[in-house]
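Prompt: For my understanding, could you write out one protein's sequence and backbone structure tokens?
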Amino acid sequence: DSGFGIVAGRRRYFAAIAASEATGTSGRVPTILLGDDEDATAVEASLLENVARQNMDQVAEFEAFNRLHKQGKSIDEIAATFSVKPINVRQRLAIATLHPRIRKAYQSDAIGPDTMQALAMASKRQQLDWLALFKNNRAPRGWQLKKWLFGGEINPKVALFDVEASKCSVVNDLFGETEYFADAALFWELQNAAVEEQRKALLDSGWTGVTVIDQQGYFQYWDYVKTKKADGGKVFIEVKSDG
């Protein structure tokens, strides 16, 4: 209305009043007046005040960055304001996808940052399923959580098939700056089909035998010597658990 609100410097304001009363001076301090059209600047000033006072955890940073983002600030502008890289802002904004109970669990130290970051890549359904396990102290964490969510950390680069043309969805790990297949079962269905095509192609090209060794097996190279195709050589394809 006819008054003013303090968005940053509240403690300095009361300190100035106390000093004025104690010394009999005017108590005047430098002041910046913001207009009604400067909401984002006001939020920014308040957040920077808190950052200067104490180190923020990842969730607190998310809340700060998210407020500015909602005020219309771009990722690059937020990064410049807090002197961080744009990827750091994207990482914190990714926490917006987390269920509030997961954020609360992190802030209370019930889960670590690696677990929270992995859950930021999970679907809403997966987060609810994880929370049900967490309630009963049976929730997977860390690398086990990634295996639970995605069947492991299978990078799209290892695919022998056209990822874009397939129905495989890929999740972006902003915290590790890499990607995973969201559905490991579908990946293996397509990958194994591609391996079978390669096996047939090798046989058609004249190799006397082509053996595929799955994830549970291991090629015992010490039992073999390299032999050319023309001399009756065979091919062994070893499929690793990471794709």
Summary: Residues 184-204 form the longest helix (21 residues). The radius of gyration is 28 Å. The first strand starts at residue 170 and ends at 173. The mean pLDDT is 84.
